[in-house]
Amino acid sequence: MKASCTISGQDIIYRLSDYDPLYEEAFKMCFYEQDAEGYFKRFPLSYRYTDYVIKRFEADAKNMFDQLLYRIPVPWESALEEFCRRVQGSALSWWLTGSCAACVRGVELNPHDVDIMIDSRHCSLVEDLFTDEIIEPIRDTSGWVTKDFGVLFLKARIDIASDPSALLDNPEPADCGPYALQHLETVLWRGFEIKVPPLDWGYWSTNAEAGSNAQRKSKPFWNGCLGTK
Description:
Elements: E1 2-8, E2 11-17, H1 24-29, E3 33-35, E4 38-44, H2 50-68, H3 76-87, E5 94-97, H4 98-103, E6 114-118, H5 123-129, E7 134-140, E8 148-153, E9 157-162, H6 178-182, E10 185-189, E11 192-196, H7 208-217
Parallel strand pairs: 6-9
Antiparallel strand pairs: 1-2, 2-4, 3-4, 5-6, 7-8, 8-9, 10-11
């Protein structure tokens, strides 16, 4: 697979070409659009860390998509541990959701990424803390189910989203919605205190089989990616 970036008008074009057709599942999951040359996604050229995101995308896009498809191991524990280390002592308000939130409680699942929710006021802080690791710019979604969305690549993919919409809890609460945000609990994992959705309200289960069901259900919107509006 070839991952490249070009400039078109006021946009950066992320381009994926020369790929095995098996990758198309991951491209579509991440809301890349298709044209005659392959798959692509646009981001604003005005983004303040443009040079950094281009470098990270061209270097790590293949690894990212390989992990999403489980073609290579997903070092989510190393990614989460490094994230925790880097944000420790900062003003960042964040919590862990998705399958990793169950894993840090002991549920045996197989995450293909790490899902982090933040306060939208701290998007710039995340960018400053992880400038070299931004693979998709953190940007306003203009009415999606979270206010902002972006992606880091820190040995594994880390999705960053902010301010979940009430739509996520319709028709029932999700592990990434406002209900979860209002009922966060703290767990100790590898020496770090991590806020996670509660287990006792029926969404997750410490039972491994139930946990597998929860993993399939835990991303009604997420799929780890944001597409072009």
